[in-house]
Each structure stands twice: as C-alpha cells, then as structure tokens.
Design goal:
This protein is of the alpha+beta class. It contains 22 helices and 21 strands.
Amino acid sequence: MAVPDPSHPSLFKFADAGAIPDPIYAEDYAERHSGRDTAIVIDNGCSQCRMGWAGDEHPQLVFRNAIARTRGKRGESDYTCIGNDITNVEAVRSSLKSQFDRNIVSNFVYQEQILDYGFCHLGLGNETAIRHPVVMTEPVCNPSYCRGFMSELLFEAYSVPAVAYGVDALFSAYHSYAKKGNPLCDALIVSSGHQATHILPVLDGKFDARHCKRINVGGLHTIGYLQRLLQLKHPELQNHITPSRAKELMTTHLYVALDYTTELHEWASGKREGDVRVVQLPYSQVSGSSALADSLTREARDRQRRQRAREQLLRLNRKKREEKIADYELQLERLLGLQAQEEMLDPEEYQLVLEEAGFEDAESLLQVVRTVQTSLEAEQQKLVALQRGPTHELPAVETISEDWLQSLKERKKELLGQKRQRQHRRQELGKRRSAASHDRMRIISQLAEDSSGKKSKQKEDTFGMNDEDWNVYRTISKNEGGSDSEKEDSEISEINKVLEKHDPGFMKASSLPETRHTDVASYYRLFLGVERFRVPEIVFQPTMVGIDQCGIGETMEYILQTYPKELQQRLADNVFVTGGNTQFPGFVERLEVDLRAVRPYQSTFSVTAAEERLLGGWQGAGTWASAEENSPHFVTRAKYSEQGADYFKEHTASNLRITPLSS
C-alpha cells in the first residue's frame, strides 16, 4: 500500500511489499479441529484463494491463486512455487500459471496443487485423508462439467466426506442479511471481481439465473488499464510501472466520480490541481563525486584495455613480420646458391639446373633474386618501425606552445562541425520534403534514363559493368559518413589524447561529463491526475477499454425492465454491493446516481454494501456452513457414488441445478 512520506506529506511511496510465506498451522489444527467435523471453507477466487474453518471470523490462509515454475540453481532441479511462496511475483510473472480460464476452473492439475498447498498449511499435511466437509465457492452459472471434475478431485483424491458449492456473491449477501437477523429474500446483487462483474437478481430467496447478466470487466482490467495509462504518461519509466505497483496504486489512490463528465471538466480547468497524487518510485541515489570517480575509473579501465589490445596486436604483427623475413632469407639463400653454380658448371649443365629449378634462363633468376631482396628489405624496415613504436608528429614537450595547442583545438572544432553537418544532412534525407531528399530522388530516377534522356528499353540490366557507373553512389551518399567519418573520429581521438596530456584545462572543460546538479528523485515520480477516476470508470463504461458491453447502470436498468413493476420495486429496494473491485470510494454513491437516473420519478431505492467486500464471500460461506439447517444441502460421498459427479444440491446461495435431458 502506498503511504505518505513523513518528510513530504504530499508525496507517497510504494510499499513494494512482497508476499510472506504462510506458516503451517499444525498445532492449531490439533488443538481446535482434530477429531471434529468442522467444515473447511474455500473461497476459490481468480486472484486469491482464501481457506479457513467455518465459525472463524477471518480465513486462516489468504494467498495468490497461482503457480510458478522456477528454475533451480546449477546442479539442482527446477521447483514449483505456490501461493505466498512466490515472494517476488514480478520476477516470475512470465512463468505464472493459473487453473482458471477467465473465472472458470479448467486446469485441475494446477487446482490439485493449489489444494495441496492449502490443506498442508491448514495443518492437514500428515493426514491420510481430509475428514472434514468442504464448502467451496464457484463462479456464477458454473458449467456442470467443471463442477463434476471438482467433485471428483475432492472425493477421489482427498476422500472428503461431503461437499457443498455456492456463489461467492450470494454467500456474501447471505452473510450480510444474517448479521441483520433477516433471511436473504429479495436482492439485486452487484458483484465485481477480478475477471468479471455480475448482476444477480434474487427473488423469494432464490437466485434467478435466467435474468442475471455478466460484464467482462473486473479488477484485472482495471489494473491493466491503469498500468497502460501511466506507461504512456511516463514512457521513460515503463519498466518501473509493473502490474504489482499498478495494483497498489489502484487500492490506494483511485475513486469513482459521481459525474464523470463534470469531473473531467473540473480537472481540465485546473481546479483540481491540488488533488494530484505524487508517488515516489524507489531509486538509487548516486552522489556527484562518486559518479565522477566512477567515470574516471571506467575511462582508465577502457584506456588500459585498449592499450593491452594494441600491444597484443603489435606482438602478433611483429611475429608475423619475423616469420616473413625468415622465409625471405631462406628463399634468398637458395636463389643465391643457385646463382653461384654458374661459375662451377658448364653453360649447358647450368641451363639444365635452371630449368629443373623452374627458371628459363639466368636473367629470369636475377629478376626473382632482386624481387626477393626488395621484399626482404621492406619487411625488415617494417619490423624496425614496429620495434621503435609509433611515431607522432608532435613537437617535443619543451617546445610545445599555446599556439600549437590552440591550432589543435581549432582543428577539433572544425572536425566536429563537419560531423554535425553530416548528421544534419542525414536527418534531412529522412524528411520527404527536404531539398536533400529531393536531390537524392532526382539522381536515383536518372539511373533509369540513358544519355539522351529517354527511358531505357534494354531488357538486360548492365549497370555496374563499368567502373564509372558506381560513381553515382558517391553522389547519392554525399556527406553521409563512411570512411571519411571514421578518419575524422580517429583524428579527433588523437587530438583528445594530446590535449589531455598537454592542456591542463582540457580534463575539466571537455573530457569529463557534465556534473550539473540534477534531482534524481523527481525523475522517478509518478503523477496521478485524471487517472484517479478515469480507471474505475471502465466498470460503468466498458467501451473505454474496447469492450462492447453496457456498464453497470445500463445493465441494472435492463434487468429491472424484465420484471413487473412490483418486482422491480422489490429489487430496487435491496441493491447489494460486494466484490473486491467495488472497494473504490464513491462506488455506492455512483450506483445511487445511476439508479436515480433510470428509476421512475419519486420512486424509492436502497443501495447497501457488504462490510467486508473482499472477504464477504468467504465469511458468508462460513456462516452458511455453521448453520445446522444447511446440513442437508451437502453432497455426501455416498450420494456422489450413487448419483455421479455432476450431482449437487441447490440452496439459497447456490447456482441452479441443470438436469440433463434424457435420451
């Protein structure tokens, strides 16, 4: 949760609190629940899973309903992290897996791993079977196929004695009405969760599934929309604006506007500038002196690395020259020996020796000897130059004058100017309407014309056969870089080395990066303005995020119009709000505004919210499981074996049972 900074009350900081691994409540289970038939309550939500015991006020476990496969260290096997064992979710977000497809459980392998984690941390890890009834929430209109697999998993894998299913929103309403001492009779429930928003009518204590509606907008879409808006607003901080931080901002700084258009006008006029929230991202402060020292150290390391590389190249070059000289000396020694045989042999015999060696006559041998001697002398001179080292055309240190240093500075300025002109021309070439671009296109178009100015009708492309053809590329790429630019860079580098050595003011004025003071903290700040009420508005206007559906207000109006006026009034008088995505300040008030706009003049209505909108589903399931009158609504293991996996019993907070058609 983002909290204010004590030193700057108007500045908020990210908590960046990671998940804390859950303890194993083995002792608590042994003392309170071992040997008893206390029901285990599981609120199997898309974002979080809540597990605990019926009769408790709060769940014992609340953890992320996800699995991450993490690669182990070298020599170790990969391992799986579940729930709150994933302490840093952003580090493994790419490998996160969930058992849900939207809000429907579809992967029961992952679901079994989630249940293993929950049962183990409840203290049941050493048990051979789960000997407690299970009450589990399920989505609205959950397919019988998915419910059957869940029943099969619970009965076959865990040997639970009984199971009951219910809708979290209906459980929440049941709990709220039970606390007031009233049974759940009539209600229009507005439930917005992680994946979707549902509006559920309840009449005479029974859920009317025929008229319920679903809006495909939930907390996940709210988080994603806020993240995208902030990344567009602060493109330089995209990697810092993670889904986890967007969720933290959503739960702390957002609110629902009573009138979205009026609120926008007020913010646009500047009247609400004081309501802008400034949130500080974490950053590392580096002092100017340490940054300067780091720069110098880095520059020295680079200089040493370049010097070592240069010395290595010189050694390799020297070795290569020495090998060439040795080859030339052996070749020259053989040729001179062949030449010396002319005095010892007859002309005919000497001619045969020359022909065997591959020479036509003594003159051709002499030419080869001269060529080898020339090459040998050249290699020897190059070797001597390498041994002496590079020679710089610089005056002696004692003769260095200010005029000479100034001439180097002017030359450097001239070279930098040429580089800027070249860069400017490259930018101009990228613009379609610039003179440089038009000139370039004119030259390219002329390539298709012959010397007479007419279009060439030759089928064979002969461009490039003559060396003169390639001169056109010199014209096209004029002042665009190339070897000239590389030579300039090399010359600038040499001038910088000389100035660095002989000009005392060069290091301070030119070489070192600018050390002007900059406020690093202000760079890492997020500003929340219209995003504070624009993001929650997507529940009331899904078209803002490209979802072609009606908002909550229009959907409520549509549902009410499907009933007679008497039933409309009964539902409007009992509008109930629950779900984690309804916790924004102003949400209930906005629903009242929307209802007032669609209800008849001077008609009455009432909107109430659950005390615990996030935990209401789990608390209601626990309250329902603790009531003795609800015991017959559990599906026992015997009924499961007799009726099959699709069988379940309806109750006040459950879905409707769909009886399959007989063939």
